[in-house]
């Protein structure tokens, strides 16, 4: 492929015009950059179940519209995943297990156990991806410039390591009062700038530690 490999840490496939991940790329890279291409589909596994040593994966500025992370069992040490600037409207982290009309969803074993940063800025999400709590090491979520309309009670359920939530420039009009209640490590910032909130929401943050937490609600509609 036209990818550039330094033989050790960096696999650089940016601006190469590829539409799929080349089969001959090294699985031993620490950082892989596939940004600014024409990739429409990304499959974590290629059927060989070969584990990558990747810590940083950049898939930004491609043409991805749907992405499932439920098969990502071959990325055990991945720490950052950059999906900015795609057209993602569906990001799947859990597996539906319907039973007699039940809305329950099953857990996915070993789902990116080391992932700390998930960035999905400038996409077409209208809801927070369900199942973020399955990412046991997740610390930072970037979702700026999507079409997210509300924050539900369970959107960040079990995100026990979460420190930063960036939701700037969405269309949020409603936030459940308990949406952030159990996020005890949420210490740095909740960024809700430039949304469509019409009333202040003090009850949402009443249980949070204001001496450690920065909450930005500027440029809303109230």
UniProtKB/TrEMBL annotation:
Entry's Gene Ontology cellular component terms: plasma membrane
Keyword Repeat carried by entry: yes
Q: Which gene encodes it?
A: Lrrc66
Under SUPFAM superfamilies, the record lists: L domain-like
* Keywords tagged on the record: Leucine-rich repeat, Repeat
* Cross-referenced InterPro entries: Leu-rich_rpt (IPR001611), Leu-rich_rpt_typical-subtyp (IPR003591), LRR_dom_sf (IPR032675), LRR_TM_domain-containing (IPR050541)
- SMART domains this protein is in? LRR_TYP
Which protein, by its recorded name, is this? LRC66 protein
| Organism from which the protein derives | Baryphthengus martii (Rufous motmot)
Gene3D superfamilies from the entry? Ribonuclease Inhibitor (3.80.10.10)
Q: Which domain of life is it from?
A: Eukaryota
């Amino acid at each position: 492929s036209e990818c550039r490999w330094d033989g050790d840490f960096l696999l650089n496939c940016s601006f190469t015009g590829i539409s799929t991940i080349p089969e001959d790329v090294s699985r031993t890279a620490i950082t892989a950059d596939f940004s600014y291409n024409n990739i429409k589909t990304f499959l974590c596994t290629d059927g060989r179940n070969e584990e990558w040593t990747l810590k940083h994966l950049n898939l930004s500025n491609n043409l991805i519209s749907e992405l499932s992370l439920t098969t990502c069992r071959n990325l055990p040490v991945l720490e950052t995943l950059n999906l900015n600037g795609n057209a993602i409207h569906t990001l799947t982290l859990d597996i539906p297990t319907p039973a007699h009309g039940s809305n329950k969803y099953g857990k996915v074993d070993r789902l990116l156990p080391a992932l700390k940063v998930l960035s999905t800025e400038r996409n077409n999400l209208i809801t927070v991806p369900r199942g973020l709590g399955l990412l046991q090491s997740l610390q930072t979520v970037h979702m700026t410039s999507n079409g997210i309309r509300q924050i539900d009670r369970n959107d960040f359920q079990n995100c026990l390591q979460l420190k930063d939530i960036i939701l700037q420039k969405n269309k949020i009009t409603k936030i459940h009062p308990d949406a952030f209640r159990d996020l005890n490590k949420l210490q740095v910032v909740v960024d809700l700038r430039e949304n469509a909130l019409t009333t202040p929401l003090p009850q949402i943050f009443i249980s949070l530690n204001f001496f450690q937490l920065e909450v930005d609600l500027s440029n809303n509609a109230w």
